[in-house]
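To: structure subgroup
Subject: Chain for Friday's discussion

All,

I'm putting the inputs and outputs inline so they're searchable in the archive.
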Amino acid sequence: GGRAGTSRSVAQKGNTKKAATWVNLLQAKSEATGKYGIPSVVSVDPVHISGIVTQTSLASTFDMDMVKEIGKENAKEYRAVGVTMLLGPQIDLTTNPTWFRASGTYGEDPALNRDLAVAYVDGLQSTFDENGEDIGWGDESVVAILKHFAGTGASEGGRDDHSASGKYMVFPGDDYEAHLIPFFDGAFKLEGKTESASGLMPNYGVH
């Protein structure tokens, strides 16, 4: 089970119920033994249970209000199957069009990544009352763990930084600081009441 197995499978046709059942059994085990956190935190990589468009498609809309609404809807879907932590969004800059993970990003523009990160994480992390007002953390909130800090989009030759062949980050034009913008000027300075994305996943490469 875990992140890469059962919880990630929630988006597969016919498997949403199975994933929710697994999460419920995990929580029951946690409560019964007292050996684990209550409730257990279940995380997942970005999966879109209802088929809502993914990050590159969202970026092409330039519509921050819509992106925030999709963040809200994604949070509801994740919570419905027991997921409380998203290992995302991926806010790496795509500096090489052949990069292995380009399709999971918001693209190459630092300012656009910044604005989209704010909109999406605000929608994902906050709970909203019946009037649509942001009330901060609540029972519809999902924790956002940004990735990958910072510069994974600059993997040498567009290779995957998760493997030895892509372990080096390269910054032509000395543009490393551009890769920090979506993080420090964006998702760590939210407009909503949760104030900041909750954590970071590091990149796996060498700067």
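Points worth raising on Friday:
The CA atoms of residues 90 and 105 lie 6 Å apart.
The beta strands are 43-44, 85-86, 143-149, 199-202.

D.
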